[in-house]
Every structure is written in structure tokens, then in C-alpha cells.
Amino acid sequence: MSTAHGTDTGKPVLEIAGLTHSLGARELFTGLSLSLRAGESVAVTGPSGSGKSTLLSCVLGLIAPDAGSVKVTGTEVVGLRPGRLAALRARSVGMVFQFGELLPELSPLDNVLLAALLARTGRHDARERARTLLDELGVPPAVTSEELSGGERQRTAVARALINEPALLLADEPTGALDTETRDRTAEMLFGLPRRHACGLLVVTHDAGIAARADRALRLDEGVLKPPASGASA
Length: 234
Ligand code: ADP
Ligand code: MG
Known about the structure:
Rossmann fold, four-stranded antiparallel β-sheet, 10 strands, binds magnesium ion
């Protein structure tokens, strides 16, 4: 079922079932399943090389898995035609990377507006929304994004990810490049987003301290997602 209201709280925004994928001789995913609803956050942990980024690539449709299903707001991503995939990503998915990955010579505002432009939402109020988001997230006005601190850059990246009101927000090691204090504040901000913006948030991180802030924390272990090892929080 696919409706235009993918961000209704409680609706599944991501449904992964039986995801199986090998890289060479190595089985990275072996029937992995995960379901995420709007308003909810899930963190997936695992050591470096365990396949966290690859999992997000499967959700984005950048990698075609060997088997399994990945549905974003009810639409099957596996096998989706490139044009429709790009449209689904632009409309329904926001992505935050480890280093913010902004265009350094553009202002924070223009970085956020560019995402609205690329999604062709045609919203007249995009500039206003971008400003409001940046204010809410505590990004100071700056002529270029280069002038921002690491934490401010990451907040700008979050504003950019939210500008098109995505049903699903993905973050790959979003705090990996930040100092401890900035890391904690950024994590707090990040995990507050699902309720404020009625989206589902999937964070992949090697940092168990960050993962513990999610509604649900899971670890990637032998190709499937398991509950955190009992008693171990780090
Ligand atoms: P993580 O994000 O958990 O550190 P990745 O998903 O980046 O892990 O990588 C999982 C495994 O896939 C690693 O062994 C990595 O070397 C391998 N890998 C990643 N990208 C590619 C690629 N483009 N081609 C071949 N192997 C890759
Ligand atoms: Mg990675």
C-alpha cells in the first residue's frame, strides 16, 4: 500500500525483510530484517567493516542485494527503476553522513536550499522553512559553511536532510567526526527528531554510547540484527 502520507506517526516507513547480500566470498547479510515506524528511532551498531554503510546503501537502492525486500514508505526499492528510485529518495529519504559533506563555499542556507531545489518540491516557502530549521537546530548565519564548527556543520547537514520533510531519516556515523561534548549534544538533537518531525530515524554507528539513546538499539552480528549483548552497554 502506498499513500502520499508516509509521515503519519506510527506508519511503517522502512520494512527490510530477508535481506541477503554477499561481497565476494563473504556473506554480509543473511536474511536480515528490520522494521521502523514514523516517530521511532533505531540504532544499528557493529564494528568497522561489519556492513553498516552497506545496509544504508541497500535502503537507498544504491546496492541491489542478492535477495530480500526493502520497502521505503511502502514502495519496494529493490529493482525499482532509476528515475522512480531517485524520486522516492528525494521525496521520502533524508541522509546525514559522517562529515556533514556540505558544499563549503555555499552558505548553510544555500546548502539546505539546494536539497529542496534538487527534490523539485516547488515549495515557495523553502527558503523560510530552511531558515526556520537552521534556527531551530542552532546554526548561526554564515557566509560560507567553511566558517562553521564541526557540530554546526553537522546540524546544517541535518537541516538539509529534513528540508523535504522525509518520512525516513538515515544517518551514517553522524557523530563520528565530533569531539565528545559536541557528539553528545548532536546525538541528543538527532534522537529528538523522529517525534518532532514525525519521521523514522535509522542511525548506524560503531559508537554504543550513541546507539543507547535510540528507542531501539540492535547490533549487526553474523549478517542479521540482534538485541545488544545483555549487560554490555559499550
Ligand atoms: P561499516 O560501515 O560497518 O564499516 P561497510 O558497509 O562499509 O562497513 O563495509 C562492509 C564490508 O564491505 C567491508 O568488508 C568492506 O571492506 C566491504 N566493502 C565496502 N564497500 C565495498 C565495495 N564498494 N566493494 C567491495 N567491498 C566493499
Ligand atoms: Mg561505514
